[in-house]
Amino acid sequence: MAEVREGVIKYRARHRAEPLPQWTANVLRELGAWRGILFRLHLLGQDGRRYGGAAWGNVSARLPPWHEEGRRPFLVSGTQTGGVAEAGPQHFAVVDSCDVTGEEVRSFGPVQPSSEAMTHASIYRVAPELRFVFHAHCPEVWTAARRLELPRTPDGVDYGTREMAWAVERLLPQKQTRAARAIVMTGHEDGFITFGETADEAGEAMVRWLARARGLSPRGN
Ligand SMILES: [Zn+2]
């Protein structure tokens, strides 16, 4: 059952446990502000009645220096931290490098990175100008993905896998995806991703699609 496996890390994790460096503080504040909004909207969270009790949702932000080609470290919320109402530095990790083909993620920080870190990494790799990626679980948007004409990863592609990373990499260059700033993960129950060059772009896309899904008529148009 996909629900029960939610939150399990599927890549090889090379993680160094150490405090988050002070130079991440500014990006962390910006990311944390939007994370708090997503939590209030239940786009992140933890509930014993959903996904076998596993926490859901994760957010990330690229870290400077922006110009360094080929090296795109990013800050990402820690594994199983979706249920934390007020996240602090102790709930985030830095992903140094990510090898999607080898399914290996190198990171450091006070907590292991989210089990979906590879999906975040693939977005930053394909689209260097993007700096924020939010992954939420949103039943309204997920169910209405087709009617909303949102870009979708193929059915059967599960979260946290290289197949998901590749599926996202294929969708990302498409005009429709860039305009929507969103991707629905068909094979990952309620899975929804938004992204942007700023935290506001990623956050606003999340809220906008939720509003559109809720504004649809119950059946057809
Ligand atoms: Zn998820």
CATH superfamily membership, which one?
Class II aldolase/adducin N-terminal domain
For the record, the CATH architecture stands as 3-Layer(aba) Sandwich
Spatial gap, N to C terminus? 33 Å
Q: Report the helical percentage.
A: 25-40%
User: Total strand count, please?
Assistant: 9
Uncertain segments? none
Mean pLDDT: 91
Following the backbone from N to C, one meets helices and strands in this order, namely: HEHEEEEHEHEHHEEH
Textual characterization of the structure:
The chain has helices at residues 2-5, 25-40, 117-126, 139-143, 162-171, 175-180, 199-215; strands at residues 12-17, 58-62, 74-77, 92-99, 104-109, 132-137, 152-153, 182-185, 191-196. The protein is α+β, with helices and mostly antiparallel strands and 221 residues long. The chain has a nine-stranded mixed sheet. Helix 2 (25-40) runs parallel beside helix 7 and helix 3 (117-126) packs parallel to helix 5. The longest helix is centred in the last third of the chain and has 17 residues, at 199-215. The N and C termini lie far apart (33 Å). The mean pLDDT is 91. The site of zinc ion (ZN) has 7 residues, from strand 6. Zinc ion binds at residues 56, 116, 135, 137, 159, 188, 191.
